Fold this protein.
Amino acid sequence: MATASALRSRDPISILCSQAANQVDAERQSPDMTSSLPKWFINGRKGWRHVIQNFTPAWFAVTMGTGIVSIILHTFSTLYPHHEGALYTLSNVFFAMNCFLFLVMFLISVLRYTLYPATWKLMIHHPVQSLFLGTFPMGFATIVNMYALVCVPAWGGASHDICWAMWWIDVVVSLACCMGLPWQMMTKHKNAHETMTAAWLLPIVSTIVASASGAVVASILPDPEHALWTIVVSYVLWGTGVPLALVILTMYFHRLAVHKLPPKEVIVSVFLPLGPLGQGGFGIMGLGAQAMRVFPQTKTLPGAEMAGQILYVLGWGVAVVLWGFGIVWLFFAIASISRSKFPFNMGWWGFTFPIGVFTMSTLSIGDELPSKFFKILGTIFGICVILLWLLVGSGTVKNIVRGNLFVAPCLQEMERECRKADKRPKRQPRQTRQELQELQGQQEKQETQDK
């Protein structure tokens, strides 16, 4: 009788609600909570497929750091003739290592977006990871520079044409990053002023690096017309990057003043402002020197010889101003990281390249003056960059062995959202009138049997 009384007190709707609740409870207790994750997603931290799937563009920062070390060592070999042989050989070792790393990372990236095409959309829509696409052309630019400095003089022949073609490829990719990624930020990404980091500079700096690389490439081109085109395009690249970088630095300073220092996980990014300032100064000096050499040969502009000299002097003056601005940001960066400890991650590679290009700017200013102060200071900076490369490189190898670095934030966010969706109660399909009538009939039949 108790059962009949309980059944009589419940209508068909309450029974359906109870069944739905029981079904939801069963789903919550189910061990399989990844049902909404895509089939291609690899859940785990082992295996080569996991490495490929989680290989982010940030890895190309390794080639940037390795490449700038090779360039600094090559510069040291000319500054210190007594140690030229050892420094030149060591520079070539780093150059070969950088070429190998870049090729491996490029192939892994191609595999990632070929085997798992959906990762491209996830990455390009991620407000942080997508910015690291700018590291690809910057890492490639270091290879172009060393190819111009080492391979072209040694090989001759058509090597200068190959170098020029490589530079044009870098120009196209750099422009795509400089214009495409900021547009992506404006239209797709969800950004907030308080979460802004100096990583916003990465797509912009790519054209500044390509501009500075253009000055190096122009110096080895035998055809004055080709050299002239390279110089003019490089000035345009400099104009697309440096002013926009200064705008972002203004926003970044305001963010630091209002919202204070960034979290310790990304605190190393405070060194990134040295990149556009150091590379911008190095590039504008190199372009001025090449303009002074090429303009009289091509009779570019009225009074070509004087025009080249004016660009040379202006370039040196602008470089000194940017160098002074860089000293301010170097102080902010050192003061920021000295406040507390911070965990190792791929962001540590942000130490090497920005300080490295600031080193090259310092050495170039010292060479043009000439000045022992800038030469000694640049040497100290360069030694610091090499030591930092050893520190960060050893930390990277150690964490690769432990499997801690192959983690893609865009995939982590997707997994987190899918798991949240799995835990939400699923809406039950609406019952038809016929089903309700059948259920009510079963209830009445049960009541009759109980009586």
